Every structure is written in C-alpha cells, then in structure tokens.
Amino acid sequence: PGSTQNYTLVVIDGNGCSDTTDFTVNVQNLPVITFNQTDTAACGELDYTFNASVVPSNVTYLWDFGDGNSSNDVSPINNYSNAGVYTPSLTVTSTLGCESSIMMPDLITVHPMPLIDFNVTPNILFDDYSQAEFTNLSVGAVNYIWNFGDGLDTSHAENPIHYYPDSGTYVITLIGETDKGCIDSVSNTLLHVINSYAFVPSCFTPNDDGKNDVLKLFTVNVFDFYFQILDRWGRVLFETNNPEATWDGTYQGNYVQEGVFVYKMEYKSLQRKHMETFGRVTILR
User: Fold this and answer.
1) Taking the model in full, what pTM does it have?
2) Any bridge partners for residue 277, and if so which?
3) Which of 2, 31, 66, 190 has the fewest CB atoms inside 10 Å of its own CB, making it the most exposed?
C-alpha cells in the first residue's frame, strides 16, 4: 500500500471452520536526502568535505566517493589525489531499514598539474655578452613565464633565447600554466657565466702609510699572463708573469718619482684568445 492501512484476515479450513484477525500495515516514509553542494574543480588534488541534510535524521550513512573510497561518517572529508572526474553518492538507511540514495554526477573534477622542466644550451657561457638558448621540456602547459635570474626582462616564449652581459651564477625559473589554469614551476641553478677579466687601478700612493701603497692587479681566469710598467723613455721598471703580483713603486731598490707611467698587459682568456691592453698608472705621494 502507498500509506498505512488496516486489514482483516479470514481463514476457513476444509470443514468450514473459520477464524478472523485484524492487523495494520504501517508504511514508513523513505528518508529524504537534500544535497546542496555545487560542482567543484581543483588542480592536482582536492580535500572535499561532504554534507547532506536527511529527514529523519536518525539514519546511517554510506558515502561512496567515486574513487574507490567510502565512509560511514555523517560529514566525511575525502582526498582526491588523482586527476579525473568523480561522481560520489550517498545511501542512508533508517532504523526501520528504509533506504534512500542520491547520486551527484561529475561533482568533483581534479585537473592534472603540468610537468615543468627545461634545459639550457650551453650551460656554461664564457663571452662578455653571451647568448643562452632554453629548451622547454614541459608537458601539459600552454602558457609560460621565464625568469632568467638576472633581474632583467622575462619571456613568455616557449623556447626563448637570453643574453647575459655579466658573469655570475643565475637561478632560472620556468612557470607553466595549463588550459585549466593549473600552475607549477621549476627552478634550476644551471647557468654559470665565467668571463676572463683583468683590471689595473689607475693610481696608487707608495708612501708607507699602509693605504694603497702598492699597485695590485685584479684578474680572473687569465692564462699566459705578462705585465710590465715603463717610464716615458720606454725603460721597463717592473714586469711579471704572476697575475697576483704587486708593484711597490720602486726600480732597482729606489722609489721612482711621482708621475704617469705606461703599462702593457697580455694574457689568454678562457677561450684562449690573446688579449693585449695598454694603459696608464699614476704614482702620487
């Protein structure tokens, strides 16, 4: 019956004897489930809290999360760690065994994260203004931002080229975004820009005051080094093959006069290029 009804049962045997009984069939309403949560999408993984209103409230719960996991909690939390579209369901059972179910088609969507990776060619640069080519090895991304680690411009190109004017070690970061807006990044310290460098100060003061008393050369990655200082008549006052050597402003044990002197410096760079420079050094006292 669709509702509670009273019934009478009459039983008659083969001898004409009969008996009668009255009984009531109670029809209980099925539990009513209300699920008001909306569709949810996330990137990578999602912790989702389930809630439902059930009348009557004294029921048992069986949540099927659609990913092979289930729970008997009233308001469970499920972690969706794999990309996919999930259809959870809820089945409730009253104390009298009446059962209701509700299904939530495609309630949960977990979008895959992009796999971000790259390499750089070459991974060591030597020239003063060097070009690096970046190869994007990412999977699943459609938009990119490159940060080249030198504080200069960024790039949205898939496989950019970048110039590094200064020597140093650079942390390069690539950010990738999928068509669903999922973002990931990777950073690598890959590019070591090592240049040959030689510098001669323009002045020093050899007066024994403990400050700037010698001419000190500053060099990085130089080979087959040669340095000499000459006076105005072309006489060699000082010469050395040691890039870390210093000159105290003397010639044959005596201090030279104040003035301007010419230097000549030769060396080979990391690329084995022959470098030759000339300049002036001033002695003041």
Assistant:
1) 0.63
2) 265
3) 2
Q: 244-264 as b/e, with b when 16 or more CB fall inside 10 Å?
A: eeebebeeeeeebeeeebebe
Alpha-carbon span 67 to 81, nearest angstrom: 10
CB 141 within 8 A of CB 118: no
Structure confidence by residue, pLDDT tens digits, 152-206: 889 999 999 998 877 778 899 999 999 999 999 999 887 666 777 889 999 999 9
Encoding tokens for residue 194? 């090592």
C-beta of residue 200 within 8 angstroms of C-beta of residue 217: yes
3-state secondary structure the chain: CCCCEEEEEEEECCCCCEEEEEEEECCCCCCEEECCCCCEEEECCEEEECCCEEECCCEEEEEECCCCCEECCCCCEEEECCCEEECCEEEEEECCCCEEEEECCCCEEEECCCECCEEEECCEECCCCEEEEEEECCECCCEEEEECCCCCCEECCCCCEEEECCCEEEEEEEEEECCCCCEEEEEEEEEEECCCEEECCCEECCCCCCCCCCEECEEECCEEEEEEEECCCCCEEEEECCCCCEECCEECCEECCCEEEEEEEEEECCCCCEEEEEEEEEECC
